[in-house]
Amino acid sequence: MKKIAGLFFLLIAGMSACNQKVKVYPAPEGIELSKAFQVEVEGQKVPVYKTKVPSATPVPRLKPTGEFGFASVASFDMNGEVSVSVTYPEQVEAVKILPSSYGIKAVIEGDKITFQVNQPGHLTVEVNGDWHEALHISANPFEENIPDPEDPNLIYFGPGVHDVTNVTIKDGQTIYIAGGAYIRCGVAENEEEIEIRGALRKKPTFILQGKNVSIRGRGIIDQATVPKKERRYTILAQRSENVTIEGITIFDPSHWTIPIQSSDKVKVDNIKIIGWRGNADGVDITSSRDVLVENCFMRTFDDAVVIKSFEGYGEVKNIHTRKCVVWNELAHALSIGAEVHENISNVLFEDCDVIHDVGRETALRVYHCDDAVISDVTFDNIRIEEARRLISCWIGKTRWTETEERGNIRNVTFRNIVATSAPIDTTLTGFQDGTDWKPYIIRDHASVELIGFDEGHLIDGVVFDNVLLDGKQLDANNITSNSFVKDIRFK
């Protein structure tokens, strides 16, 4: 009878959702909210959370100073065009809503900003020139196929605060973190370690291991209470098949946020990640196949979406990233490397927005310092609103090198890329080839480089097809290259 009642409740909730235009999830008691912004959607108040972001001034990735700021984060579900209003603590003189490709126009009245949102997406609102402590708004689609809390294969976290050390699921199981649920990640004393890539490590907060496994919902996972020294993954999919990771917001990851390792048929959809610690990557796809990352927002201190391969763990192929919004705080926005021990092929990054590139490495990069072959890579329809180092294909040795032999890069296409160079800042310092700290080479435009290693380890076949930098077609004069690069073509 209990299960019948639960099914009846879900049916009624589903019918109600069909009639709703917007859905807002209340914040749990005891969670400190942001005072920097107030947000309403269709007249409903939306909780605005706060989470750490990196310092506004450049700091070394491996030697962080401990300085940080706070971003504000709001989220709701929408089922049709909605009106959003944002109230700021002082008079609004100017506002910028990113990505610019959304074409959202704001109306300013005193301390209030209003605008229309006609489809799901991830917005960043910057007021009075403050890009650092911005407001991030996620307009999610309505959830489909909400699971029954009584399902024996479901681990359910309902609205409220939950303290979690580790949850591991196997074949056929799902972790569901409902809207209004807030997961505080902890560390237990004498905690058991597991083997990850040949080394014993602290268990990730959530482990997906098996066939037909998933973690999803509209709740929040916060790793802020995980000590710096622990460096534990947030969600690990390892040796799994048919994996879904969907809808969740993740604050303050202490290490790689979502590593996908030795897995097949994985979908990462509408995940929101905001991190500030060193090694706080977004999605790390390693030694896996048939992976789709889409509709995500990532503001991370290290790589956002990155593809790697480790020796003995399998090749990488058929990787697709699309419709994501990325804020590159230090390292790469969309990239392959550095660790590449097994071949990587058939990779597509498309229809993404890089709204900030304040980092000291490269927005779009194929970065190879080991011995495999990277081939058939395409960056297509990418919009970059602020670029310092725009494009790089590079083979060499760095602090990350683990093999004696070098590899090769073949058939890379950059198509329909639109980028604007960041303002020149002579105070910035950065990595030189990923090793030591050296002054930036100051240019009047974002840099593009193609650097092979030697005659046996070439970059062979690079196409630039409609690449616009500062409104002009990219040509050979914009590119730094060496004699170990063959077949550069411009269309």
From TrEMBL:
Q: Which residues form the signal peptide?
A: none
Q: Which Gene3D superfamilies match?
A: Single-stranded right-handed beta-helix, Pectin lyase-like
Positions in coiled-coil regions: none
Which SUPFAM superfamilies would you find in this protein's record?
Answer: Pectin lyase-like
* The keyword Transcription is annotated on this UniProt entry: no
What does the function comment of this entry state? Pectinolytic enzyme involved in the degradation of xylogalacturonan (xga), a galacturonan backbone heavily substituted with xylose, and which is one important component of the hairy regions of pectin. Activity requires a galacturonic acid backbone substituted with xylose.
| Record has Transcription regulation as a keyword | no
Keywords tagged on the record: Carbohydrate metabolism, Glycoprotein, Glycosidase, Hydrolase, Polysaccharide degradation, Repeat
Q: What is this protein called?
A: Glycosyl hydrolase family 28
User: Which species does the entry assign this protein to?
Assistant: Algoriphagus jejuensis
What InterPro entries would the database entry show?
Glyco_hydro_28, Pectin_lyas_fold, Pectin_lyase_fold/virulence
Name the lineage.
Bacteria, Pseudomonadati, Bacteroidota, Cytophagia, Cytophagales
According to its UniProt record, which protein family does this protein belong to?
Belongs to the glycosyl hydrolase 28 family.
What Pfam families does the record point to? Glyco_hydro_28 (PF00295)
